Amino acid sequence: MKFAIKFAIALAVLAAVAGLYAWLGSGNGGGQPQYRLAKVERGPLTAVVIASGTLNAVTTVQVGSQISGQVKEIYADFNSAVKQNQIIARIDPATFELRVNQARADVDAAQSAVAVAGASLAAQQAELARVRINLADAERDYERKKSLVEKNYLSPADLDKARTVLDATREQLKAVAAQQRVAEAQVRSALAAVKQRESLLRQAQVDLERTIIRAPVDGTVILRNVDAGQTVAASLQAPVLFTIARDLRDMQVEAAIDEADVGRLRAAQAVSFTVDAFPRRSFAGEIVQIRKAPVNVQNVVSYTVVISARNPDLSLLPGMTANVRIVVEHRESALKVPNAALRFRPTDATDAPLTRQARPSKPGVPAGRVWLLEAGRPKSIDVRLGLSDGASTELLGDPIAEGTEVIVGMAAAEKRDSGLPRMRLF
């Protein structure tokens, strides 16, 4: 019985201590929530677009080979400065020299065929002239004998013989004329063959000239893909031997801009960027081109924006990653509220629609809601939003005065020690 009484007393003491701790831990008797506040301020506000891109030369030329063969000599290396038409490599020309010699021999043979055809044509022309003379003689003989037959000085048989000779000579003239036309065709064919062989000779000479690789532009060699002794095969496409940057003093940044930000950019807009190689140095440029071709990577759409980059001291190198910062809009004195205030929602608040006053009066002007603390309870006010820099957002109109405190979050509950000694129950 005594043990039961002692156990009941112990339970009562524990319950009292637990209640005391709970009352002291609440910080107050009413259990009111605590809020973190921030002031609405006026000051400068700048909206920027942040992106990254790659530095490249404005003009980069890939030098390839249109013929296959073994690289015999290399005259340019990495970082070599080259001039236009300067020889930078040579492919073994032995095979192509043989082709040129063969093509030249074919041209000589074709020209000889033209000479033979011309001689044959001359012979046919001479034969045609002889037959024409014989035809004129046969015509005169026929006319003379015809006159004599009419005067009965000559028999009709002699006239028939003269007519036969005349007809035969006429047919011979036709045959010789046809042979002359054949000879003329042979001459034209031989001349065409000469042109064909000359074309093949020029093609062989062009291929021989292509064994000499020349720099197409003035610039700097930034990439060399071959060594002496290496064989290149130009089958479906020309292999790239060198990559030449035309002028490294004029470079450009190709930055990937998100589709949500590209609408705020325009040509000739000022840009600043940094590179990891010079973290304390800022470089300036401007937007040159906004390419309309979208780039879709895992359902994220971006657009390539080309930014000019002056490089007078050649400190910037192709391939460097540029961290781009583009100022799209600036306010010298804007009434701004922390973005945390726009994201705050009380735990007991419902997502009611914005009031008519908060709806944008102009298309494209977004609306938001902030909460003030009145009589210890939050009160919502609908606002129209303007420019944002990611941390603060401009308030349009005059819904809230400067210096007004808005709720930005809940305060963490403080743990208070009651100071009561701990009790041990036996």
Could you explain how this protein is built, in words?
This protein is of the alpha+beta class. It has five helices and 19 strands. It has helices at residues 2-25, 94-150, 156-209, 259-262, 339-343; strands at 35-39, 41-57, 60-64, 69-74, 81-82, 87-91, 212-214, 219-224, 231-232, 240-245, 250-258, 270-275, 278-297, 300-310, 321-338, 367-374, 377-388, 392-396, 405-410. The strands form four sheets. It has a six-stranded antiparallel β-barrel with strand order 2-11-14-13-12-15. The longest helix is centred in the N-terminal third of the chain and has 57 residues, at 94-150. It is elongated and about 175 Å long. The two termini are 17 Å apart.
Helix content range: 25-40%
Biggest sheet layout:
6 strands, antiparallel, barrel
Q: Number of helix segments?
A: 5
Using the CA coordinates, give the radius of gyration. 50 Å
Give the helices and strands, then pairings.
Layout: H1 2-25, E1 35-39, E2 41-57, E3 60-64, E4 69-74, E5 81-82, E6 87-91, H2 94-150, H3 156-209, E7 212-214, E8 219-224, E9 231-232, E10 240-245, E11 250-258, H4 259-262, E12 270-275, E13 278-297, E14 300-310, E15 321-338, H5 339-343, E16 367-374, E17 377-388, E18 392-396, E19 405-410
Antiparallel strand pairs: 1-19, 2-11, 2-15, 3-10, 4-6, 4-9, 5-8, 6-7, 8-10, 11-14, 12-13, 12-15, 13-14, 15-18, 16-17, 17-18
